[in-house]
Design a protein that fits this description.
- This protein has about 170 residues and is an alpha/beta fold.
- A five-stranded parallel β-sheet has the order 1-2-3-4-5, covered by helices on one side.
- It starts with 7 loop residues before the first helix and ends in a 10-residue tail after the last helix.
Amino acid sequence: ALGSVDPAEESEFVNGQLTADSLPVMLVGDARMQSDDVEATLARHAMHANFRGIRDFAVGDYLVDPAFHRGYALLEKYGMSYDLDATAENLPKARDLALKFPGVDLILGHAGFPQERTDEYFETWSAGLAAMAEADPIKLEELLDEVTTDSEALLAMLTELRESVAVDESEPEE
């Protein structure tokens, strides 16, 4: 969870709750990519066979921060994905990150967090998706939560997604 002193303890806790009768559980946890001890945190998460990736809520201009890149590069070593929360304006930076580290599966959360329903914003969002498409393939998640109040906007966004991005709809590997 956000603000955890030791995010790897959460993976240990969840795994400790599982039994032979539990449904399959895949974990995505926290690690501060910019911290000096990020590798130790990733290694502890990796001790759990059902751990899949990191969802980091970094702040600031972290997508271009060399310290963030150092931690992000370690995800490939541990076979972990990265769930990215980036707004449309930051998608070109996300594309650059994905191109720099092609061995890390980048999952674009909320399809770039659509914030507005204006034509101007839709153009910005579409341009961001087009930028991300250059880092094919990326994975998308949770768009429907963002635009459920406007069916016309939802249809336009889904159409743009389908036309702009090669969506990876494969199931995660067990």
